[in-house]
Design brief:
Elements (H helix, E strand, L loop, with lengths): L17 H6 L17 H7 L16 H12 L36 H11 L11 H13 L5 H9 L5 H11 L2 H13 L18 H12 L4 H14 L4 H5 L11 H6 L5 H23 L18 H10 L4 E7 L3 H32 L1 H14 L14 E2 L10 E19 L1 E3 L5 E4 L4 E7 L9 E6 L12 E19 L1 E2 L4 E2 L1 E2 L1 E5 L11 E4 L27 H18 L2 H23 L4 E7 L20 E2 L12 E2 L23 H12 L4 H16 L20 H13 L5 H9 L13 H6 L12 E2 L2 H11 L16 E3 L6 E3 L26 H5 L18 H9 L1 H18 L3 H13 L5 H14 L1 H8 L3 H4 E2 L1
Antiparallel strand pairs: 1-14, 2-11, 3-8, 3-12, 3-13, 4-5, 6-7, 6-8, 9-10, 15-16, 17-20, 18-19
């Protein structure tokens, strides 16, 4: 009873509750088989018959008479009167799972928030504090809504505005500025643990992750209905096809860390590969249910949730929703019309190619043995054989010679325009220098990439990544990499670990072939560029890479093979009927036309998203299987090597008003599963997502939420301090025809509760509610790292407000070919490229920016529902000595001198106005005058941006 009673329920089993005792348990249920004591697991455990599980574990087996009593009871039918069973509380009767009720405010015409807060305060004999002054309000609202300080001119205008609606006009103006989306997107990205590197051991960059960040900013600025915001992030490609938002929103699914080694180096057939993919789906599930529902569903992956009504089967039903997905680059069109056109043309091409294949197969079958013999002779002639090239003076491309084996080298082929390719083939060289012979110069580690960008900065697809382990010298055997029908203009091969030569290292290739879907080499004769090259007559030169000759090409010259190919074509032509010949000509023309139409379309953009992946090697994905979802099984104790029963897609059974399982026909695509979950999450009858987002919005306005555990609305989480208010906010957003988040923001910031002073002294309230959980005053709040960063750039006059696009890097990457090192100390703090808002900073998981980290920036490897808010000497030292801060202090001084002239007093007054939106006191002015005389204006500006007042909002 100590382990299986009311206090503990190990293995999900209780012996004080009839139903659970007779039917429950994680691994061996049922443990009691009425009438069959010998077969009952319970008897095997308590008797010591099962050597691996002796019960109770500390005290040893029960006595013989005790065991005999239990056996007799079971054999007699395990009779258990209802009155002898403990009554357990209904686990599903919990505040967050109950329907949302919208109580009417006490006094119509007032802000309902204030009525709820006043009612709660009145219970304790307390009242709201007085309203803050105008300067405090505009500073508070500016930092809160847009994350930037107001200008001195904006403060003066607001303070002087006698219009009764001045505050509301300010609210509307700030909510309408594009800075609003940039500010609130940062909060959202914390919650979904968005990052732009993979994390884990090899924290490689994600160059195409940023479109999701831009999507979030755009959605908040556009005041997208919250229900659609949910749906797009789970299934935008299905529910809103051919839309930019529907594609970029899928970055939500891939926002978290990704185990590069576990996926790219370990196949799914091995246990470690299964574990990596299981954990990857676990992250997708955690991100989804934590973010939108504030429930800890991931606790149910090994057993039924210990505290909340979430059985293991619910967890694996959610895994089944995402079971076809991986984290991968996905192409999309920014113009819906182009996307629709591409889909239509792609279907025409697919249909034409399918029909060509059907016609050719039928003819080949009728041609029989004569065709088979011709094919065998041609294959024998075309088969690479050891020997010399057909053109003896054509060797290949050869990089410069280097003493550093790990210094990358690259060579690339320009096809002239984007071409659809099936396979890229690399042919090694042959050279007897230093007795190396076959495979001379073939890289020890390398990767093969496709792009339409000659600089390989955007839209890069890796089709072969062998950068993580040394590869065996292939001799002169061709090395093939599937391009999966992708269209690209440029092909690049990058050697990340060079081949040994003679006490030095090189990279050499004889030939690069790009085969289209007809197996034609479209790279032959194409232009070649490289990082460097040894141009040594006809022997080594870049042009040799695409000249069509390579070692082992075969003893037969093309002229020897051509007659056999003609004979083969003639045989097929004789075998075809006139109707078949005509139709073949027609569908081939259709395929050619479709290919040309595809190539004429604009280059697609790429987003790193949760999507069906088609790859090679270990990281193959489900694309090769048509994107069919992987089968998902319940895993007892999370053990992938012992799968239990198979589970179909679904959600949480504790939300009784909605179906817990999705009935989806097998022929439906995997997207239908995500679409079903997206609709379940956004359903107005589902109480969890509406309470969750209302709590989050409140939290970021007040510094603390109504439910202190924003990611856990279960029994281990906190209870709401103001449950009626939380439901009112949730229902207001849910029932709004526009589902407008901006309206919810406005309702909150317009309240008297929000406009209270934070400096009110109230001994009674302080004694009773020192943490201000009842909101009898406003919280004084320290600004987040990004707000401080942006404010410093703003007052220095250096803030670049360019929106969107690839993130800036405030670091230098070293060792990019293996495990990148992100060296922040090597970045130039005066570089204009890093003077954008911090929302556009590239977020690294393994090595966080030191200044940001000191200022309590969110860890992108974790789901951060609330940031730590600390005050430490380290923060002050970082703010004082960080090189960006020092440079910005100098720029601040330059700005001030331009605006205020050479007089020290005028400079200090202006610096205070710009930085903290007030004039300095007489004492402050006197002290800083003396300081400026000795240390100069730049150091005075450095002091001002280190004031507490600069990094706090009242």
């Amino acid at each position: 009873m100590k382990c299986h009673g009311p206090e503990k329920q190990k293995s999900g089993y209780r012996l004080d509750v009839k139903k659970i005792a007779l039917t429950g348990g994680d691994d061996h249920a049922p443990n009691i088989l009425p009438g069959k004591s010998a077969a009952s697991p319970l008897i095997k455990f308590i008797s010591g018959e099962d050597k691996e599980m002796v019960m109770p574990p500390k005290d040893g087996p029960l006595s013989g008479p005790e065991i005999a009593t239990l056996k007799a009871w079971i054999d007699a039918g395990a009779i258990w009167p209802e009155e002898a069973s403990t009554k357990i509380v209904d686990s599903q009767d919990w505040w967050s799972l109950r329907p949302i009720t919208k109580a009417a405010p006490a006094r119509p015409g007032t802000n309902p928030i204030d009525e709820f807060i006043r009612a709660k305060l009145a219970e304790k004999g307390l009242t709201l504090s007085t309203e803050a002054d105008q300067r405090t309000l505009i500073r508070r609202l500016s930092f809160d809504v847009i994350g930037l300080p107001p200008t001195p001119e904006e403060v003066d205008a607001f303070v002087a505005d006698t219009d009764p609606n001045a505050y509301e006009k300010l609210v509307d103006r700030l909510l309408a500025t594009p800075r609003f989306g940039e500010r609130w997107a940062r909060h959202w990205l914390d919650v979904v643990h968005f990052g732009e590197t993979h994390g884990y051991d090899k924290d490689k960059p994600r160059p195409n992750a940023w479109p999701y960040r831009d999507y979030v900013i755009r959605s908040f600025n556009d005041d997208k209905p919250y229900a659609r915001f949910i749906q797009e992030q789970i299934a935008g490609d299905v529910l809103f096809p051919n839309t930019v938002d529907g594609m970029e929103a899928l970055g939500f699914i891939s926002a978290g860390p990704w185990d590069y080694i576990g996926h790219a180096e370990v196949p799914e057939s091995k246990n470690d590969g299964k574990i990596a993919r299981h954990l990857d789906r676990d992250d997708m599930i955690s991100n989804t249910i934590n973010t939108f529902c504030s429930m800890t569903v991931h606790c149910a992956q090994c057993h039924n949730h210990k505290f909340d009504p979430i059985p293991q089967e619910d967890y694996y039903a959610l895994q089944a929703v995402f079971s076809a997905l991986d984290r991968t680059d996905r192409k999309y069109d920014t113009d819906p019309a182009v996307a629709s056109n591409r889909a239509e043309v792609s279907k025409r091409l697919k249909d034409a190619e399918k029909r060509v294949n059907e016609l050719e197969t039928a003819v080949k079958t009728r041609a029989g043995d004569p065709l088979k013999k011709l094919d065998e002779r041609i294959a024998e002639l075309e088969k690479p054989k050891p020997g010399t090239p057909s053109k003896a003076d054509a060797f290949g491309y050869h990089s410069s010679i280097d003493k550093d084996q790990n210094k990358p080298r690259w060579v690339q082929v320009d096809l002239g325009d984007a071409r659809v390719m099936s396979t890229i083939v690399l042919h090694p060289c042959k050279d007897d220098f230093n007795k190396i012979g076959d495979g001379f110069g073939f890289p020890v580690r390398f990767k093969v990439e496709l792009s339409n960008d000659p600089a390989f900065q955007n839209g890069v697809t890796i089709i072969g990544d062998l950068t993580n382990a040394d590869v065996k010298n292939p001799g002169i055997e061709p090395q093939s990499f599937s391009a999966n029908g992708q269209s690209a203009r440029f092909i690049r091969v990058t050697a990340t670990k060079l081949a040994p030569r003679q006490n030095d290292f090189i990279f050499a290739l004889s030939e690069l072939e790009a085969l289209d879907i007809t197996h034609k080499n479209v790279a032959q004769g194409a232009a070649v560029t490289s990082l460097d090259s040894i141009e040594s007559g006809v022997r080594w030169r870049k042009t040799n890479l695409t000249d069509g000759y390579y070692p082992g090409i075969g003893k037969a010259a093309p002229s020897d093979i051509a007659p056999l190919i003609r004979e083969r074509d003639e045989l097929l032509a004789k075998t075809r009927t006139p109707d078949e010949a005509a139709e073949l000509k027609r569908v081939k023309a259709e395929a050619t036309t479709a290919k040309k139409a595809l190539l004429a379309l604009p280059v697609q953009r790429v987003v790193y998203a949760g999507s069906v992946h088609t790859g090679t090697g270990a990281f193959a994905g489900t694309g090769a299987n048509g994107g069919k979802p992987r089968p998902i099984f319940v895993l007892p104790r999370g053990n992938v090597s012992k799968p239990g029963k198979e589970i179909g897609p679904g959600a949480l059974s504790c939300v009784k008003v909605l179906p817990a399982r999705f009935e989806i026909a097998p022929e439906k695509g995997e997207g239908e599963r995500r679409a079903a979950l997206a609709k379940w999450l956004s359903d107005t009858k589902n109480p969890l997502p509406w309470r969750s987002i209302a709590n989050r919005v409140w939290q970021y306005h007040f510094g603390r939420p109504l439910v202190e555990t924003p990611n856990d609305f279960g029994r281990m989480g906190a209870l709401p301090t103001h449950p009626e208010l939380l439901d009112y906010l949730a229902a207001t957003l849910r029932d709004d025809p526009k589902s407008s988040l901006k309206s919810l923001h406005k309702l909150i910031v317009m309240s008297a509760t929000y406009r209270q002073s934070s400096t009110t002294l109230n001994e009674k309230a302080s004694a009773f509610d020192a943490e201000n959980r009842l909101l009898w005053r406003m919280h004084r709040r320290k600004l987040e790292a990004e707000a401080v960063h942006d404010s410093v750039l703003s007052v220095a006059g250096k803030l670049d407000l360019t929106m969107g696009g690839p993130s800036y890097q405030d670091f230098v990457i070293t060792h990019p070919e293996h495990s990148p090192h992100y060296e922040y100390q090597l970045a130039d703090p005066s570089n204009p490229k890093i003077q954008r808002r911090a929302i556009y900073r590239m977020i690294v998981r393994s090595q966080q920016q030191p200044w940001m980290s000191a200022q309590d920036c969110a860890d992108p490897s974790m789901l951060v529902d609330k940031r730590n808010q600390t005050l430490t000497p380290l923060q002050a030292l970082a703010q004082l000595n960080n090189q960006l801060m020092v440079v910005m202090a100098r720029d601040f001084a330059v700005r001030i001198k331009k605006e205020a002239g050479e007089n020290f007093s005028a400079q200090i007054v202006r610096a205070f106005q710009v930085a903290v939106q007030r004039n300095p006191s007489a004492d402050e002015l006197s002290a800083l005058n003396a300081y400026t005389t000795v240390h100069g204006l730049a150091n005075t500006c450095r002091v001002i941006i280190n004031l507490n007042e600069f990094v706090f909002a009242d």
